[in-house]
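Input/output pair, single chain:
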Amino acid sequence: MTEYGLCLWTFGSIDFEEKCRLASEIGVDGVEVQGNIKEDPKKIKSVLQKYNLKALSITPEDLDISSSDAKERQQAIEYYLKLVDWATKLEVPRFCLHGQVGKINWDKNLQEHWKLLVDSVKIILNKAQDNNLEVVYEVLNRYENYQVLTAKEGLKLISEVNNENLKLLLDAYHMNIEEENPASAIDLAGEKLGVYHVADSNRQAVGNGHTDFAAQFVALKKINYVGPIIMEISAAGPNPFTPMKENDYLKEDIDFYKKTLKILKKNFD
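Output:
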């Protein structure tokens, strides 16, 4: 049975319990938790249980695992190694890994920078595998990062890391920018698709933009996708890197999520 979720970061700076209350009101099965490893995972589990929510995945902090600065890169790797322990205590099945948002220019030649990425992911995956955790590498877009922008590039990373616990996170919003055919990208990912993120072309509710979700839903069924469908929607307004907009952004978020969840259930239940 399909599990539906949403990303808690999209609710902004309100406290964790209020975010969970809103998620429960919307009607999702679970949430993608923010990876603040300073928070007590036992407390997080308790709040999730209170609102009958599962921890479906983790949104990590924004760090540069392929930095040419060895100290910066090591700090990023150390965060993810600690995140593995934190995720294990939280009893979440997977966590997300991605390139640093805002890293749109390379600071070394492409081949060397790619090798740094592969080497870092290998280190993280080795520990994740020991803890029986799946890792989903999120394919972003050129306005956020420059390294892994398509399903094809993501599969190249998986091949070179060579660890069965590494899968892809494909996001409808990012695919709208980078993929020639998002449905074909889903088909290409096949069994390597670990998480599917949902937002329309304007990062709003399904139906508020121009994304051809019908084709993507057909592709998901064709590959027998069994992972979670996690919505990552944002209210309209300036600065795409913050969820907090003018006016009552939370009400707009909630309306977008309810509308999208209804469409998802109609297609997958």
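The mean pLDDT is 96. The first strand starts at residue 4 and ends at 7.
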